[in-house]
Amino acid sequence: MNRHWTRTLLIVSMSCGVIPAVFAAEHAGESMKEHGGKTLEQPSAPAASSTPAPAPQALSVRGSIAALDLTAQSPNLKLTAADGKVWTLSVNPQAVTVWKGGQVSSLETVKAGDNAKVRYTEKDGTKWVKSIELVQVPQPVASAAPAAASTEPKAKSY
């Protein structure tokens, strides 16, 4: 490759922020007196980002608590969703926040039969509970309409 094209390729590559590996390997250490006496260096690996990796997205499921076993070697929560599916989620008691009536509560307040919205993340195929929000299921409102009249004849009193 003649010197003019080599210099043009270098200038274009540098303006794009990329030096082709073939060019860099072919001309490593070559003096570039016409560009301030600098020599070409091997491209380095990109610097590690100082921003942390994004947190896993929190997912959620609603249902009725079937069981909460905090005594097991691997504590877990079983929840039965409205569609009947039983979910088993792992629990790290130090990392779970429990909400009851808009207030933070303890994990010990969660009992079988409670209705809950459970937020979790999934890591390496394991679902980890992040928070449990105990929710009240609205009770059906009693009808204000009078009871329907009985079709049975009333006994007459004499």
Using DSSP, what is the number of strands? Answer: 9
CATH-derived architecture of the largest domain? Beta Barrel
C-alpha termini separation: 126 Å
CATH fourth-tier homologous superfamily of the largest domain: Copper binding periplasmic protein CusF
Number of helices: 2
What strand line-up does the widest sheet have?
Answer: 5-4-3-8-9-6-7
Number of domains: 2
Helix content: 10-25%
Q: Major beta sheet, specifics?
A: 7 strands, mixed
Strand content: 25-35%
Name of the level-1 CATH class of the largest domain: Mainly Beta
* Mean pLDDT value: 74
CATH T-level fold name of the largest domain: OB fold (Dihydrolipoamide Acetyltransferase, E2P)
Low-confidence stretches: 17-35
Order of helices and strands: HHEEEEEEEEE
Quickly give the structural class.
mainly beta
Rg, Cα atoms, Å? 34 Å
What gross morphology would you assign? elongated
How are the SSEs placed, and which strands pair?
Blueprint (H helix, E strand, L loop, with lengths): L2 H13 L5 H6 L4 E2 L5 E2 L19 E11 L6 E6 L4 E5 L6 E4 L2 E3 L9 E9 L2 E9 L24
Parallel strand pairs: 6-9
Antiparallel strand pairs: 1-2, 3-4, 3-8, 4-5, 6-7, 8-9
